Automatic annotation (TrEMBL):
Record-listed E.C. numbers: 2.7.13.3
Catalytic activity: ATP + protein L-histidine = ADP + protein N-phospho-L-histidine
CDD domains linked: HATPase, HisKA
Organism placement in taxonomy: Bacteria, Pseudomonadati, Bacteroidota, Cytophagia, Cytophagales
Organism: Flammeovirga aprica JL-4
Keywords, comma-separated and alphabetical: ATP-binding, Kinase, Nucleotide-binding, Phosphoprotein, Transferase, Two-component regulatory system
The protein's enzyme class: transferase
Protein name per UniProt: histidine kinase
Length: 538
């Protein structure tokens, strides 16, 4: 259970990193290289790689290879001379050994050689996972030299990450040619024309030029808008140095209110050492292209968010089915055992165990329903007695867990607190439950302590929960609000409580800070907007 949870959390983290890089427009190959390095490291493998095929030349041409570098040594099973004719890479790589034999790869391959592992030889274990698009192989992910055996389900659990690699691979060849294109729309006559001398002073412009841009300026650069003067300067100099016609999109201004985008051609006239500039107004087209580009960017962003949501949904379904099946299987097993018993006391004992299994299932279902309710319901703001709400939550939690706690509540409420009571209750319940659940079990003299301070102002509310429990390791603090992540697997829990807390706070447009030290305790600082002023307005 803990290993699966760890792997699922790893997959979601790697997918999240990839989507963050894509949104930042990082190069796809750089994204894949960083992800493969992190995947190999997190999988406890010495080496990992991803090979991407060139479909034109078939299997013998893996045109891209990203890998976690591994130094070559005398124990390798191959040499460069036997592989140069098979694959196109310039430098020898451990990936060669596997890529030669992956032409018909359609299912993951797992290999484990305990004898080689004992002898310290390479390739003691490896996992090869095909990347398929419409049943066609487009790449291979390899994880090699793991310090132990791969589970049979390892490749299956990595599938959401493999699907994300597919998305990144599809963008490698999506190159946008930003060079000026002389398509059919530019084959039409360029109606604007102006002549400039060797110092780029305007000699004369035709009627169309003067009608569009006027005749008040003496130097060509006086017409250029913003930083586009650098573009015009470059093509003028290049037209002279190469004796060829140069084209570019340049913004020109008649005045500060009238700006036009022109496709211009610069022609150097060597006999007079002057230049002729001809142009065509493409302002409308340029605006349409800009709008289209923004729409495409929004669409790409939406697609990435949708892909991320789908991956999270896959992980959610897997966890729900697994966490529901475990207590159900336990209860069914206990029913079978009870049927074999004749002693009433023993039957009662078995029934109590069944009850605990079913209660565990019920609690998990309740948490999932709470998550769904928070994610879907709009905020309904009402006036909340926040101090009484927290007192009631402490009392009910203490009774439910049968745990004694010293709880100190201080309140500084200068204004009524107005917010969504269901979401605020959920935040308080989960944080207080965590304080009770993760109390220190090895404390002989100190008491279990929870200090809660409430400060309500006109525009915002701050609630601080400070306990003296087992604390959270520093390396896990940024992950404890991930769904199904559990920093302490030795304690009972579903890994969804703090995720619900963060989602509820986000829905309320608040903020959560976590400070923790192992064996000293944890502090949760919750900032929530107070809608008291808005409520008074209406």
């Amino acid at each position: 259970m803990s290993q699966q949870s760890h792997l699922d959390g790893l997959v979601l983290r790697l997918i999240g990193e990839i989507h963050s890089h894509l949104l930042s427009k990082k190069k796809p190959l750089e994204i894949l290289k960083e992800s493969i390095e992190n995947l190999a490291k997190a999988s406890n493998c010495k080496y990992g790689f991803l090979g991407i095929l060139d479909h034109q030349d078939g299997i013998k041409n893996y045109k891209y290879l990203v890998e976690k570098k591994a130094s070559l040594n005398t124990l390798n099973l191959f040499n460069k001379s036997m592989l140069d004719s098979a694959l196109p890479f310039k430098e020898v790589s451990k990936a060669y050994y596997f890529l030669k034999y992956t032409e018909n790869l359609s299912e993951p391959i797992i290999s484990y050689d305990e004898d080689r592992l004992v002898k310290g030889l390479p390739w003691s274990s490896h996992l090869l996972i095909p990347i398929l698009f419409q049943k066609e192989l487009i790449g291979v992910v390899g994880l090699c030299d793991k310090k132990g055996e791969f589970d049979e389900d390892y490749a299956l659990q990595l599938q959401p990450l493999i699907d994300t690699y597919k998305l990144v691979i599809s963008q490698i060849d999506d190159k946008v040619d930003t060079a000026p294109q002389e398509d059919s729309s530019f084959q039409e006559s360029f109606d604007l024309m102006v002549n400039i001398d060797k110092l780029w002073n305007i000699q004369r412009g035709n009627f169309a030029w003067e009608e569009k841009l006027g005749r008040s300026k003496e130097h060509i650069m006086d017409y250029v808008f913003g930083s586009d003067y650098e573009l015009l300067e470059n093509i003028i100099l290049k037209a002279k140095s190469t004796m060829t016609t140069q084209s570019e999109k340049i913004r020109f201004k008649r005045d500060k209110h009238r700006i036009f985008t022109l496709m211009v051609k610069v022609i150097y006239q060597s006999t007079t050492r002057s230049f002729k500039i001809i142009g065509k107004d493409i302002s409308d087209r340029f605006r349409q292209e800009s709008i289209l580009k923004k729409q495409q960017d929004r669409l790409r962003h939406t697609q990435l968010l949708l892909q991320k949501s789908n991956n999270e949904l896959d992980a959610l379904i897997y966890h729900i089915s697994h966490d529901l099946r475990a207590p159900l299987a336990s209860a069914l097993g206990l029913v079978f055992v009870s049927q074999q018993e004749n002693e009433m006391e023993e039957v009662k004992s078995q029934l109590q165990l069944q009850q605990k299994s079913l209660e565990k299932m019920d609690n998990f279902i309740s948490e999932i329903l709470e998550f769904a309710r928070i994610a879907r319901t709009p905020n309904e703001n009402v006036t909340i007695d926040i101090e009484q709400l927290i007192k009631d939550t402490v009392t009910s939690t203490s009774k439910a867990l049968d745990v004694e706690f010293e709880v100190n509540i201080t309140s500084n409420q200068n204004f009524p607190f107005v917010s969504d009571i269901k979401k605020v209750t959920s935040i308080a319940q989960n944080i207080i439950h965590n304080a009770f659940q993760f109390r220190s079990r090895n404390r002989f003299h100190d008491t279990n302590l929870l200090n809660i301070s409430i400060n309500v102002e006109e525009n915002d509310t701050c609630i601080i929960f400070e306990d003296n429990g087992i604390g959270i390791p520093q390396e896990y603090i940024h992950r404890v609000t991930e769904i199904f992540f559990r920093a302490h697997t030795e304690y009972v829990g579903s890994g969804i409580g703090l995720y619900i807390v963060e989602q509820a706070i986000k829905r309320l447009r608040g903020h959560l800070s976590i400070i923790s030290r192992v064996d000293q305790g944890t502090t949760f600082i919750v900032w929530l907007p107070n809608h008291y002023f808005k409520r008074e307005l209406f």
